[in-house]
Specification:
Elements lengths: L1 H5 L1 H21 L9 E3 L1 H9 L4 H7 L1 E3 L14 H34 L2
Antiparallel strand pairs: 1-2
Helix pairs in contact: 2-3, 2-4, 2-5, 3-4
Length: 115
């Protein structure tokens, strides 16, 4: 039922949340030797989700390792500038999607109240 009410936005919010977790993990492990930075290809994950995969499988299938511009000597591939930009962009998308869902819920609530 939630898919018919919120459409693609409910799925997008789940995937953006999962991507935020992956990006936060990258940032948290910036000083861990040998850590390989990952990211979720949001468009691929959303397409998989719309094709019927659950959100975890969709995110897992679209998770890729980052190729660093300048690899570090300890094997860590986290580049803080890249991670911070990706995290910020994802946070803006998450906020916009959440605002849409809130607006939709408010509209439904007003309709039920007869306003």
């Amino acid at each position: 039922m939630t898919e018919s009410i919120f459409g693609i936005h409910g799925m997008a919010l789940e995937l953006r949340s999962q991507r935020m977790g992956v990006l936060a993990s990258n940032i948290a492990n910036a000083a861990t030797p040998g850590y390989k930075a990952r990211d979720i290809d949001f468009a691929a994950a959303l397409n998989a989700r719309m094709a019927g995969a659950d959100s975890t499988k969709a995110a897992d299938s679209a998770t890729l390792y980052r190729v660093p511009v300048m690899p570090s000597l300890d094997g860590n591939t986290v580049e803080m500038q890249t991670e911070q930009v990706a995290f910020s962009e994802n946070a803006v998308g998450y906020s916009a999607t959440l605002s849409f869902i809130r607006g939709r819920a408010d509209t439904i609530t007003r309709a039920l109240k007869g306003e």
